[in-house]
Amino acid sequence: xxxxxxxxxxxxxxxxxxxxxxxxxxxxxxxxxxxxxxxxxxxxxxxxxxxxxxxxxxxxxxxxxxxxxxxxxxxxxxxxxxxxxxxxxxxxxxxxxxxxxxxxxxxxxxxxxxxxxxxxxxxxxxxxxxxxxxxxxxxxxxxxxxxxxxxxxxxxxxxxxxxxxxxxxxxxxxxxxxxxxxxxxxxxxxxxxxxxxxxxxxxx
Length: 204
Ligand SMILES: [Zn+2]
What we know:
Blueprint: E1 4-6, E2 11-16, E3 21-26, E4 33-39, E5 42-46, H1 49-56, E6 66-68, E7 74-82, E8 87-88, H2 96-101, H3 111-120, E9 133-135, E10 140-141, E11 147-148, E12 158-164, E13 168-174, E14 197-203
Antiparallel strand pairs: 1-14, 2-13, 3-12, 3-14, 4-5, 4-9, 4-13, 6-7, 7-12, 8-9, 10-11
The site of zinc ion has 6 residues, from loops.
């Protein structure tokens, strides 16, 4: 299978068989990739960030870490980090109401809807939108607990490689967050333009 381009603001899915390695690249840098994984045999089972934190004793994925499902089944391994640790597993998936919270009026593209649409293309409903792994996004928790998501410090061409430990359907959404919110610039805001993400099976 060739390269799958996820256009800016959109989502796409890809089947990743057990043992295959998926590379996810941010060609222009800074663009956050919201990542989801589902058990291909039972899409009710999905990658769960909170279950993954407590197993790896880490709030961010590092090389060698394993991503778990909500049933604590190992689903993927972080095989390679070509983005120097600029990842987040804390901030939940954006949705229409997130944009309204920040004052946006009218429909806004969002990662939750992108996920639902991408999974429909595979014939699956998504009754519960999981908390995404946000590759190429660096949230920050201050000592007093204040949470910010400053501009993503990720260079063009940065990538991650994840190895499937079971047969999966994976989805990436090129996060459409583009509002100008101080302390919450992410990949959009007033400092960066939104751009595409690429997915490719590179091994296996
Ligand atoms: Zn998003």
